[in-house]
Specification:
single chain, mainly alpha, three-stranded antiparallel β-sheet, 12 helices, about 70% helix, elongated, transcription, transcription regulation, GntR family transcriptional regulator, GntR_C
Length: about 230
């Protein structure tokens, strides 16, 4: 164990640092669904006191990532398949509404707003790196919602996107899913540029439904493999 002095600083800043570190551990499968741990273990590993660790864990508990076990420490919440499916349903509603608003804009204005997405998903050579494509996939869907112009809708969508990130990371370990993502994103953009609202919403809904269906296929073995062979 590292013997350097424990970090010192403002409690809020330390708690934020611990919060971000633990959330990244969950997203990168270093902390698995069902894993149990103590505040002391986290404090020792991150070289901070228990106070910011406890604060960070309460934040993560409020967001649904961990839960406390009376007198037996903390646990990363096990997968709740119905919860994730509800998040995917909510995501579909938000993104279809964003598409409707984008299709209602003058075509030149809409194309101009989504130029960066067109450049990446339709014009540039596809990436082969699963982690990079996963990040760009998140950015694509968030950009669609942000471009619709409702800041509160974009904020809620961003929070939802973070909650399903662990599922999406698993989805991008397969080449066929990455290829489909490029193809379907291009189809969505073409339909939006042509102001074909129903077609764009149909493609988008089907696109999200495939990812949603993958939720039920997740097994403990898949998660263990993800920890042993993290996505590069």
């Amino acid at each position: 164990m590292n013997t350097s002095p424990r970090s010192k600083g403002r409690p809020e800043a330390l708690a934020e640092k611990v919060y971000q570190a633990l959330k990244q551990d969950i997203f990168e499968f270093r902390l698995m669904p069902g894993d149990r741990f103590s505040e002391n273990e986290i404090a020792d590993r991150l070289e901070v006191s228990r106070t910011p660790v406890r604060q960070a864990l309460f934040w993560l508990e409020r967001e649904g990532y961990v839960e406390v076990w009376f007198r037996s420490g903390w646990q990363v919440k096990p997968f709740d398949f119905e919860y994730f499916e509800e998040l995917y349903d909510f995501r579909t509603v938000l993104e279809c509404e964003a598409v409707r608003r984008l299709c209602a804009l003058p075509a030149p204005q809409c194309i101009d707003m989504l130029t960066a997405l067109k450049s990446f998903w339709m014009d540039a050579p596809p990436l082969a790196d699963g982690k990079a494509v996963s990040a760009q996939d998140e950015a694509f869907h968030m950009a669609l919602v942000a471009a619709a112009g409702n800041q509160e809708m974009a904020r809620i969508h961003a929070e939802l996107t973070e909650k399903i990130r662990i599922i999406r990371r698993l989805d991008f370990t397969r080449d066929d899913r990455m290829e489909a993502t490029y193809r379907e994103h291009a189809q969505i953009l073409r339909a939006i540029f042509q102001q074909q609202t129903e077609e764009a919403q149909r493609i988008l809904t089907d696109h999200i439904a495939v990812s949603k269906a993958e939720v039920r296929k997740i097994t403990l073995h898949m998660l263990q493999q993800a920890r042993l062979q993290p996505i590069e």
